[in-house]
Amino acid sequence: SDRKTPREGLLPLIMSGGDLGTRFGTHFFQLLDAKNYRGLSQLFKQNSIVSFEGNNVQGMQKIIGLFQAFNKKYPKTQHKCTADTLPTPDGSNLVFLTGKRLDHQHSRIDTAVLVSATVILKKTEGKFWISNLIYRGEANGQNIPSSDMKVGAQFVGQFYKIYDSDHKKLGGIYTDKTVMKYETDKLQGAQMIMCKLTKGASDHIETQKRTKLPFRSVTFKSVKHEVKSLDIHPGAGGLLIQTGGYLAPDGSTQGVRFGECFVLMKGQQGWKVLCQVFRQIY
Hints:
By secondary structure, the chain is α+β, with helices and mostly antiparallel strands.
């Protein structure tokens, strides 16, 4: 079905303006939904790593085999996603895609599968390519490919435990250079991130410093996370982590689906979060 498709790659995307993550997400899911394996193969190299619903492969042929198996299971897919993009410390781009997937089993938008995907885009000789891709839809579970990545799972366990019990203690995992995208707000540095995560803090800082902040703090005082999926890759010069599950603010019994991704780096003060993206998915 795709024999006549030109060799595509991501080069056209660079020329077409707009947000890199949005352009990439549209391009990637169009290729996947159209079963355009030639186009997809242009996006990967032999050292690319992909986790798809908890299955891990490396190298172009195995990656395309994974997509073919996915398309066989879900013959008719249509993805609609929002993209968030952040620069990573090693000069790559972190793209977090969240949204919905329609398929033959979920043909109505109200029954669509909620999906999240984390991508590291690198640029070589003017072309973007995917070094890492993590995709989750229906499948849950922990995906820790090797024992040296267990530190990532330990970090996630601690992160949500502290977040749920006393989130003000989270400040120590961030640095002045940490970048975060929280829904539509982009933040940099531990102080601004903690201001975002603390109810009423933005009002307090604005009053105290007589300045206007470009964001508002969260509206909930406390939250509980139920993590259903965890994927860890070596990537972006450190560890790349994607989590998904449900969160319930201020004692609510109605959980909301969320997706989150992190880039962790080890420094002299231990492991720190250098990049983080959070989205509710609905």
